[in-house]
Amino acid sequence: MLAEIITYNLVADTIADFARESLLEEVYLTPKPGLVDRENNGSHHDLNLTVMESSALALRSVFYEMAIVAAHKKPSLQLREELGAIGRYGERKMLEATGGINAHKGAIWSIGLLVAATSILSSGDSVFTISNLLNTAGAIARFDDRYQPSAPSNGKQVSKKYKVATAREEAALGFPSLSKTALPTWRKYQNESENICRINVLLSLISVVDDTCILHRSDMKVLRMIKQKAKDILDRGGMGIPENQHVYQDLDDLVRYWWVSPGGSADMLAASIFIHKVTHHFTIN
């Protein structure tokens, strides 16, 4: 029994490391329109590379606790509420690390669910596949957390105003933006350089996600323009085509003009990176 506990602690360590690395690799990806990267702070006055790094490093222990809590369990109300409590603690820890700046609240939710789903599958009898991973995460998300704060978040208010899906609704459906868009795009461009592949994945997400981070600062008209511009780049062959650099610059100019940032798409990119890491690890080892 002790050996089993020690062994799974090591597995939880691995999962938490993958989560932290995914957040860091997302922010290090350069260039990204309107988002913090190695070149600039995008459409942000408060966020920068140091803040994003501090947040990702602080959240590593939070993801570890989520992995431990979910091990050898199945999706349930109790697990959902335990994860919710850890997530709220994680938000406080993030704010302490960043001086009160929200760097990864959305990622705590999305990657937290995927961490828990990874833990469930890697400690149980189910076959570890991307489909099972997303379905398990969705099953957890569909439970109502009775201790969730009643005050609506900015994301929920924007979702209600524009009648777009909330982060919870996206998760409860098994993250269709990942299964139908991001992951197929990853497979399509996997023979390109890692940087080009991941930028194309980000563009694919920007082209389909009703990003509440963008809507919070603008409106549906601006969101549609940004989505179309991202789609145009992919329709022209993606960022691996040198001639598309100027179209990408047009997208960057557009988000800077409206001072918006596709933060929801960035969270989903980090989730895509996490899925890529854990699927490779747990299906190979």
From TrEMBL:
The keyword Plastid does not apply. It catalyses: 3'-dephospho-CoA + ATP = 2'-(5''-triphospho-alpha-D-ribosyl)-3'-dephospho-CoA + adenine. One of its GO terms (molecular function) is triphosphoribosyl-dephospho-CoA synthase activity. Keywords: ATP-binding, Glycosyltransferase, Nucleotide-binding, Transferase. Its EC number is 2.4.2.52. One of its GO terms (biological process) is prosthetic group biosynthetic process. It is an enzyme of class 2 (transferase). PANTHER family: 2-(5''-TRIPHOSPHORIBOSYL)-3'-DEPHOSPHOCOENZYME-A SYNTHASE, TRIPHOSPHORIBOSYL-DEPHOSPHO-COA SYNTHASE. This is triphosphoribosyl-dephospho-CoA synthase. It comes from Chryseobacterium rhizosphaerae.
